[in-house]
Amino acid sequence: MDRLQSMGVFVAVAEEESFAGAARRLQMSPPAVTRCIAALEEHLGVKLLTRTTRFVRATEAGQRYVESARRILAEADEADEAAAGVHAAPRGQLAVTAPVLFGSMHVMPGIVEFLTRYPEVSVNAIFLDRVVNLLEEGIDVGVRIGELPDSTLRAVPVGAVRRVICASPDYLSRCPALVEPRDLAKQTVIAASPVSPGLEWRLGSGKQQVSIRVQPRLTVTNNAAAIEAAALGFGITRLMSYQVAAPLAAGQLVRLFREFEPPALPVHVVHHEGRQASAKVRALVDLLVERLRQNAALAAEAA
Description:
Elements: H1 3-16, H2 19-26, H3 30-44, E1 49-51, E2 56-58, H4 60-84, E3 92-98, H5 100-117, E4 121-127, E5 141-145, E6 153-161, E7 163-167, H6 169-174, E8 189-192, E9 200-203, E10 210-213, E11 216-220, H7 223-231, E12 236-240, H8 245-249, E13 254-256, E14 265-272, H9 279-293
Parallel strand pairs: 3-4, 3-5, 8-11, 8-12
Antiparallel strand pairs: 1-2, 5-14, 6-14, 7-12, 7-13, 9-10
Helix pairs in contact: 1-2, 1-3, 1-4, 2-3, 5-9
């Protein structure tokens, strides 16, 4: 039994939650996949998968094994690349994560450029508005907004963003007076739940911090909808500076109370440093870092 091949087959079955799906992904026959898993379970002396007519799930032992198998397979790939030399062309699969809107606006162009440059690489882009555990979820590269906790990840700073309050000129021409932050409590507010999930907006910092309790008339579940509603003149919203950079530049939105904005949030590209990063990870990280550092929406003066 080829141990590495068996690990690869098991990881595919666990991720696809299907023997047939793993067979298609690996271009193997379903019976060959079944025999491989059976041989692996016999070798280990444990049941790795629970099978029913409706689904396939990793057992508790299987969940532990799949994480170890992913790590071993990644290290084997790194060893192959090291043997081939540092100039070996990137190849294989990569998983990349970022916040939803940031990913589509600012990470996807880099991914497309990367795939165009390296035709032997495929990328799974996972854009989610939550913190993704790179190790546990099998992610190679991530983009994080905000302060980073201590971890084993390598983090490369690429810029900064801020939470900003904005509204359209049309709304500002007919809204109640906006002289100081406390006047926000009298306004029509659009809340984007990923950015402004609470009813209290904290502005400023330190002794200058002010808390404003707002009552949204419109709550949306994604930032793009909040931008659209604000640009249409419905009310005031609070979003990240990179999200509204284009409508601000076009004059569709106006930035309010800039002097009361909280401190900037750093943006990092993160990845597993390891003993030797693979060629594909190095290449993608280098490209994303270069492109994001050139992005005006993340520059200090824009943030």
